[in-house]
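Supplementary Methods. Inverse-folding protocol.

Structures were first reduced to a discrete structure-token string of length 152. This string, shown here, constituted the complete conditioning input.
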């Protein structure tokens, strides 16, 4: 029998550990701990196994993505969204479906944020919905993992 695919990895990129203190007018007052605890509750309800990582380091994020011990990736690459060929290549290299999440709407901010190096290698993007975006990404992951395997 085929092994059930239910392992979701959530990666929070640089400076997201500052949520709750950081630019509240943009990112709101939710702390990362609160987002993570909501994610854990949701994952348990959906029967998903969840690992959550926050890193400020591009290399660490590449290392974690390419360890491939998961079936679905939800990633907020934060500032690396706009600069990191390495994270983009890592996502392409593992061939595991990924959703890109942003708390703020990157299209409503400075122009440099409107360019993502990740979006076209993700199966989808959720931007501007605050912490709800992560929950929606988890719901999408659950639905997509139920389908016979296909990257997109
Ligand atoms: C962000 C948007 C990025 O432009 C920014 O560098 C972040 C957070 C977001 O979640 O809205 O750090 O990814």
């Amino acid at each position: 029998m085929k092994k059930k695919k239910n392992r979701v990895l959530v990666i929070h990129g640089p400076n997201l550990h500052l949520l709750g203190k950081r630019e509240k007018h943009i990112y709101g007052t939710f702390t990362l701990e609160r987002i993570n605890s909501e994610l854990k509750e949701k994952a348990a309800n959906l029967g998903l196994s969840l690992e959550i990582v926050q890193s400020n380091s591009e290399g660490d994020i590449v290392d974690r993505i390419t360890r491939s011990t998961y079936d679905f990736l939800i990633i907020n690459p934060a500032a690396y969204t706009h600069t990191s060929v390495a994270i983009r290549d890592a996502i392409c290299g593992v061939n595991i479906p990924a959703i890109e999440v942003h708390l703020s709407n990157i299209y409503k901010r400075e122009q440099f944020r409107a360019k993502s190096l990740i979006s076209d290698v993700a199966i989808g993007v959720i931007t501007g919905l605050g912490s709800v975006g992560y929950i929606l990404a988890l719901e999408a992951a659950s639905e997509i993992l139920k389908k016979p395997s296909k990257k997109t």
